[in-house]
């Protein structure tokens, strides 16, 4: 088994799957694995586009050897220096010591800082081109999508855009590597989870990159994670455009923190009343059980967000505090907010959410509802009003 896969007659996929790493960036769960995608262009000058995480180097180098059959790699293009893509550079250099490394000025700063590599460098700037023979590469600088050095490489013959982390997502490639070979519903959810948690903060820079690429004739998108988009590259471009504009779907995500179930009952009551108003997309999430990355993914998806918390040590329940801090960090716009919760002998939960909400700058659909220990009849009536206001706001999306 040679391991490499043809994208075109002379451009190949040599990526690898990682089903052992449990947490990406030591932060995001990889329940369904992840791929590290790398590509080779064979021509008068052979080019390797990005490498893979060091833990998969042995599989990676075997694919390259099988494909090249003794030929050299002339160039390594580095679109992104994050170690899950640059981690094998030193080992690749040992295998191909005459290989030149193509990157931009900021790429080479990171290359030195991470690996101490200062030789065989070929610096490119925005719009520069390199002729390989039958193929030509053109380089587009896309800084802060999502690191300062990120760039994209366009192969002009087959019109393939190698995009680094842009348009990529979580999930291993189990057999199929192309968009027409895989379940796109699964991958689009994992791509949105990747985008919302890792790239989303830099959405204005994503918009800038999309505008720069708007006149480029793109037939295939080849990212460093997730499927290769050969059938409908416009589909993932449209998703990125929507997400980076903070557009949303009609729906409500209700996130709660509850020690003994009383705040949870309020969340369920809200969900039922919102459903009675005709909203079908409703997610109720227990902040104590669900990883932050999945919660942020749902917040990025839906227009309506409801945050509920019990009071804990005169403040916000800790899992809820992590969530509101992260929302503040992302800079997400164009959502509407509802707030609810419980308290005992002192407040602190709801009022802390309200304080964080000032940073969100989202419209609050109605007054917060805070019940003493558990919701009574008057509290339930207020929840009904809150639910209706949320449903109306979401319908007007």
TrEMBL record:
**GO terms assigned for molecular function:** electron transfer activity; FMN binding; metal ion binding; oxidoreductase activity
Residues covered by the Flavodoxin-like domain: 252-391
Per the record, the coiled-coil ranges are none
Q: From what superkingdom does this record's organism come?
A: Bacteria
An example Pfam family from this entry, by short name, is Flavodoxin_1
Family, per entry: In the N-terminal section; belongs to the zinc metallo-hydrolase group 3 family.
Q: What is this protein called?
A: Flavorubredoxin
Species this chain originates from: Oceanotoga teriensis
Q: Source taxonomy lineage?
A: Bacteria, Thermotogati, Thermotogota, Thermotogae, Petrotogales
């Amino acid at each position: 088994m040679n391991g490499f896969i043809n994208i075109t007659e002379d451009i190949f996929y040599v990526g690898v799957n990682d089903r052992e790493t449990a947490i990406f960036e030591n932060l995001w769960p990889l329940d369904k694995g992840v791929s590290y995608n790398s590509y080779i262009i064979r021509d008068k000058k052979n080019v390797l586009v990005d490498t893979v995480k060091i833990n998969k180097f042995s599989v990676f180098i075997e694919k390259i050897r099988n494909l090249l059959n003794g030929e050299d790699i002339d160039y390594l293009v580095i679109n992104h220096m994050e170690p899950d893509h640059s981690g094998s550079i030193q080992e690749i250099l040992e295998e191909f010591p005459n290989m030149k490394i193509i990157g931009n000025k900021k790429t080479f700063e990171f290359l030195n800082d991470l690996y101490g590599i200062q030789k065989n460098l070929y610096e490119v700037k925005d719009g520069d081109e390199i002729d390989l023979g039958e193929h030509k590469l053109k380089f587009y600088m896309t800084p802060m999508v999502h690191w300062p050095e990120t760039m994209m490489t366009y192969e002009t013959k087959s019109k393939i855009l190698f995009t680094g982390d842009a348009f990529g997502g979580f999930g291993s490639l189990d057999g199929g590597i192309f968009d027409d070979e895989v379940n796109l519903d699964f991958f689009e959810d994992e791509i949105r989870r990747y985008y919302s948690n890792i790239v989303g903060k830099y959405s204005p820079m994503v918009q800038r990159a999309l505008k720069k690429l708007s006149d480029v004739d793109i037939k295939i998108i080849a990212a460093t994670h997730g499927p290769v988009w050969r059938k409908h590259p416009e589909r993932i471009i449209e998703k990125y455009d929507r997400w980076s504009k903070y557009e949303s779907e009609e729906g409500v995500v209700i996130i709660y923190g509850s020690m003994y179930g009383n705040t949870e009952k309020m969340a369920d009551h809200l969900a039922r009343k919102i459903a009675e108003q005709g909203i079908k997309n409703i997610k109720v999430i227990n902040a104590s059980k669900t990883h932050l990355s999945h919660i942020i993914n749902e917040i990025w998806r839906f227009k309506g967000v409801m945050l509920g918390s019990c009071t804990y040590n005169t403040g916000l329940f800790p899992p809820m505090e992590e969530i509101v801090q992260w929302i503040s960090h992302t800079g997400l716009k164009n959502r509407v907010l509802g707030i609810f919760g419980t308290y005992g002998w002192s407040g602190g939960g709801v009022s802390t959410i309200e304080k964080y909400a000032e940073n969100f700058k989202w419209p609050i659909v109605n007054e917060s509802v805070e019940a003493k220990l558990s919701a009574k009849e008057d509290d339930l009536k207020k929840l009904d009003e809150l639910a209706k206001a949320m449903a109306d706001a979401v319908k007007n999306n």
